[in-house]
C-alpha cells in the first residue's frame, strides 16, 4: 500500500507540473521529490508521468489515481488540523498569507506590539497574489480581498479598501490638471502587465483613461505606488497610500465600483487553536483600527475661486445717496 508521504509528493508534482516547483512547494530538494516518485512508481508498477518539453504530464494511470490520492490527502490534513485545533497553548508557528503591499503597510508596523504580547508565537508571513490553500495547510490565516467559497473556511469581514486615482505633486506641476471628461488626453497613466491586466482597476483605466498614454506597466501594487511617487503618471492605488505619502494627490474620491472588502480567513478546524486565535484577533483589531484610512484618502485640495474685482456703485445699478 502506498505511503502518504509518497502520495504527497505525487500530488505536488501533478499540481506543479515539474520536480523543481514541487520541491519548492514541499520545501525539500528536487532529488528527494524524484526519489519519492520513483519509489511510488515501483510500488504501483506503473509510470505516472511522461516527460514533455513543457514539463511532466500525468499518464492515464496517474489521472485515475489522482482523486483517490486527494481523498487520502484530505483525511490526513483533517487529522493534522483537528490535532492542532485543540492546542490551547499560545505558542508555536502561525503562517499568514496576504499581498506584499498589505503585509508591508498594514501589518508589519504593528508586529512589535504583537510580539510583546505573544513572544512565543512565531509568525511566518507569506506574500504574493497567489491564493495559498488553507484547506491543504499551505497557510493558517489568510488576508483576502475576495470571500472564499469553501464551506470549511471561516471568513471575517474587517474593513474595506477604497481605490483612488493618484498623481504626484511633481507630475501635476509638470503636466497640468487632470480632466476625466477628456479621457485623460495629454496625460500618462501607470498601467498593468501580464495577469494583472485582468484586474478591475486595469479595466477601469481602459474606459476612463482611454486617451492617455501608458508610461509603464507593472504587476504589483508596490510597483504602482513607486511609479506614481516618481511622477510617471496617474495610478489607481489603495486610498491609504495617500495618508502615507504626502507627495501623492488624490484626483477623485474613492471609486465605489472598485472597493475591495478585507476578509480574515482561517479553517474551522483551527477555530480553537490558541495561537491561531491570537493572530486572528490581533489582525482584526489592527486592521479594524485602520478602517477609516483604508476606505478613504485624505481630503482633496479645493480649487481656489477667482476673486472678482468690486464694481463701481453706478455699474451695480445703485444710486448714490441724496444729500
TrEMBL record:
It holds the Pfam family LysR_substrate. Residues 2-59 form the HTH lysR-type domain. Keywords: DNA-binding, Transcription, Transcription regulation. It comes from Corallococcus caeni. Residues 293-323 are annotated as: Disordered. InterPro entries: LysR-type_TF_proteobact-type (IPR058163), LysR_HTH_N (IPR000847), LysR_subst-bd (IPR005119), WH-like_DNA-bd_sf (IPR036388), WH_DNA-bd_sf (IPR036390). This is LysR family transcriptional regulator. Gene3D superfamilies: 3.40.190.290, Winged helix-like DNA-binding domain superfamily/Winged helix DNA-binding domain. PROSITE patterns: HTH_LYSR. Belongs to the LysR transcriptional regulatory family. Residues 299-308 have a biased composition (Basic residues).
Amino acid at each position: 500500500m502506498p505511503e502518504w508521504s509518497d502520495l504527497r509528493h505525487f500530488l505536488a508534482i501533478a499540481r506543479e507540473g515539474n520536480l523543481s516547483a514541487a520541491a519548492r512547494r514541499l520545501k525539500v530538494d528536487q532529488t528527494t521529490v524524484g526519489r519519492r516518485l520513483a519509489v511510488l512508481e515501483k510500488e504501483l508498477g506503473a509510470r505516472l508521468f511522461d516527460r514533455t518539453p513543457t514539463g511532466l504530464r500525468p499518464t492515464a494511470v496517474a489521472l485515475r489515481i489522482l482523486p483517490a490520492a486527494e481523498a487520502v490527502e484530505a483525511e490526513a490534513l483533517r487529522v493534522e488540523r483537528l490535532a492542532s485545533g485543540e492546542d490551547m497553548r499560545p505558542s508555536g508557528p502561525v503562517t499568514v498569507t496576504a499581498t506584499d503591499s498589505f503585509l508591508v503597510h498594514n501589518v508589519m508596523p504593528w508586529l512589535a506590539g504583537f510580539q510583546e504580547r505573544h513572544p512565543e508565537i512565531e509568525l511566518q508571513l507569506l506574500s504574493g497574489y497567489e491564493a495559498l490553500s488553507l484547506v491543504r495547510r499551505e497557510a493558517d490565516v489568510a488576508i483576502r480581498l475576495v470571500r472564499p467559497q469553501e464551506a470549511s473556511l471561516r471568513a471575517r469581514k474587517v474593513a474595506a479598501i477604497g481605490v483612488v486615482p493618484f498623481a504626484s505633486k511633481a507630475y501635476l506641476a509638470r503636466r497640468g490638471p487632470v480632466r476625466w471628461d477628456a479621457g485623460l488626453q495629454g496625460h500618462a497613466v501607470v498601467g498593468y502587465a501580464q495577469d494583472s491586466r485582468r484586474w478591475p482597476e486595469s479595466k477601469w483605466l481602459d474606459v476612463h483613461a482611454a486617451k492617455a498614454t501608458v508610461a509603464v506597466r507593472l504587476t504589483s501594487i508596490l510597483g504602482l505606488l513607486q511609479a506614481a511617487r516618481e511622477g510617471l503618471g496617474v495610478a489607481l492605488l489603495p486610498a491609504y497610500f495617500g495618508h502615507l505619502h504626502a507627495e501623492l494627490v488624490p484626483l477623485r474620491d474613492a471609486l465605489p465600483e472598485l472597493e475591495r472588502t478585507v476578509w480574515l480567513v482561517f479553517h474551522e478546524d483551527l477555530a480553537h487553536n490558541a495561537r491561531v486565535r491570537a493572530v486572528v484577533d490581533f489582525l482584526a483589531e489592527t486592521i479594524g483600527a485602520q478602517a477609516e484610512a483604508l476606505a478613504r484618502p485624505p481630503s482633496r485640495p479645493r480649487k481656489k475661486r477667482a476673486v472678482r474685482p468690486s464694481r463701481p456703485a453706478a455699474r451695480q445699478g445703485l444710486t448714490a445717496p441724496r444729500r
